[in-house]
Automatic annotation (TrEMBL):
It is found in: Cytoplasm. This is Cold shock domain-containing protein. Keywords: Cytoplasm. The keyword Protein biosynthesis does not apply. GO terms for molecular function: nucleic acid binding. Its main location: cytoplasm. It holds the Pfam family CSD. The lineage of its organism: Bacteria, Pseudomonadati, Bacteroidota, Cytophagia, Cytophagales. SMART domains: CSP. Signal peptide: none annotated. One of its GO terms (cellular component) is cytosol.
Amino acid sequence: MKTGTVKFFNESKGYGFITDDTTKEDFFVHVTGLNGGQIQQNDRVEFETQEGRKGVNAVNVKKV
């Protein structure tokens, strides 16, 4: 599992971005990629990555 920080998340639109702690790369996250619960800006999270339609997405995202 990777760890990171939620850079931005728009609840009404259901998407945002997570910045990876190690690589500082930003990953797109959709509400369908959350593993229970909600996330907000600046939350610390664990996640996995998976190839999506438009690039690599964060999936299985959960707060730590």
